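Q: What residues go here?
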């Protein structure tokens, strides 16, 4: 089959789970021979990594979702390179992508990834871009699909393709090991969270759970890796609570998943979550998981079999579940063993294959519909 020409659009300024998924998809599709462009802010971490790895990076002149100048500039990029597919990987890039593609003939297929289980904002642009702007949406979990349908997107225009991970054990990143970064003595219990410092990750509940855990296990240490809009505020709150010697917010760490095997327990405290691939990363390397039962997380974790789930926002339950795993290491090993089997269903190679097939299927359906329209007019 002929290779596809694909624009991957993302205008976020940080590197988080969505950018990591875009990256893994782009690398996998490149290995399959497809031509791709990464359309992003020139100063973003995605631009730096993509450029360093030989991808062609196109500067997205993003100034807001409905900025006419930005839309026209993007339209010129699309007209120049003539992609078959324009895939918007973050919500802010979907509106300009959909508008720009409507100004180009032949019009590329517009795909939107939806990675969160938030309800769509009740404004005309948000409703339009999901219900009409994109030709089709990829939801990363059944929960995300259900929310989109509830918010008015036709069910036939939403396909679930679970995010995937590389199942090989990652190499540790350069620099100190996790214990050194966390200030944890050898043999001390070590808890790890990898999550952006955004509101939906619910860091206030994490802080409350950490305080409760340290009362029961004063030897425990907890490291949090990730950056985001609330990083400074959250770090200051840790200081005010007097937890900074045992709970360390370490910011963004490149290739952070390489530190996972050094943790005793992995914890995610999200209030909402599209899927949560950091949970999958922990499952893949044999670290037992405690998580809130938010969004798509129960599609990965079967409580009591492949991990422990607690209600969102329940700090006492979270602390108790972590303590259970620290006290009962045999339980942790049983959960981790079962999780290592379950995680095979989320191999990134499966995600790449399903996405490639998804693009081709939609393009074939469009071509067929065009042929039928032409036949009716002759």
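A:
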């Amino acid at each position: 089959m002929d290779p596809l020409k694909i624009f991957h659009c993302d205008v976020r300024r940080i590197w988080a789970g969505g950018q990591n998924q875009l990256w893994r998809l782009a690398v996998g599709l490149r290995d399959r021979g497809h031509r791709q462009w990464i359309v992003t802010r020139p100063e973003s971490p995605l631009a730096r990594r993509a450029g360093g790895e030989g991808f062609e990076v196109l500067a997205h002149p993003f100034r807001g979702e409905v900025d006419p100048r930005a839309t026209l500039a993007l339209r010129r990029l699309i007209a120049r390179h003539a992609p078959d597919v324009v895939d918007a990987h973050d919500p802010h890039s979907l509106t300009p992508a959909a508008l720009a593609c409507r100004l180009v003939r032949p019009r590329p297929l517009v795909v939107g990834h939806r990675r969160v289980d938030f309800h769509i904002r009740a404004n005309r642009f948000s409703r339009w871009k999901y219900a009409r702007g994109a030709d089709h949406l990829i939801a990363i979990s059944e929960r995300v699909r259900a929310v989109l349908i509830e918010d008015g997107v036709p069910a036939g225009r939403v396909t679930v393709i679970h995010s995937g991970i590389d199942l090989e054990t990652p190499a540790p990143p350069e620099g100190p090991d996790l214990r050194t970064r966390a200030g944890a003595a050898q043999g001390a219990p070590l808890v790890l969270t990898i999550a952006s410092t955004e509101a939906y990750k619910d860091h206030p509940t994490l802080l409350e759970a950490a305080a409760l855990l340290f009362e029961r296990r004063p030897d425990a240490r907890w490291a949090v890796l990730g950056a985001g809009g609330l990083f400074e505020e959250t770090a200051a709150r840790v200081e005010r609570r007097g937890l900074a010697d045992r709970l360390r917010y370490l910011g963004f760490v490149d290739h952070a998943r390489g530190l996972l095997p050094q943790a005793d327990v992995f914890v995610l405290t999200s209030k909402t979550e599209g899927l949560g691939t950091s949970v999958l990363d922990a499952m893949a390397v044999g670290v037992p998981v405690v998580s809130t039962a938010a969004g798509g997380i129960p599609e990965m974790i079967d409580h009591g079999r492949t991990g422990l789930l607690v209600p969102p926002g329940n700090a006492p339950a979270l602390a108790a579940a972590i303590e259970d795993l620290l006290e009962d290491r045999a339980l942790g090993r049983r959960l981790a063993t079962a999780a290592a089997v379950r995680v095979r269903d989320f191999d990134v190679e499966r995600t790449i294959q399903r996405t490639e097939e998804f693009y081709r299927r939609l393009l074939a359906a469009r071509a067929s519909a065009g042929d039928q329209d032409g036949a009716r007019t002759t």
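A: Context that may help when evaluating the design: Residues 372-378 have pLDDT under 50 and may be disordered. The chain has two domains: 5-164+347-377, 178-346.
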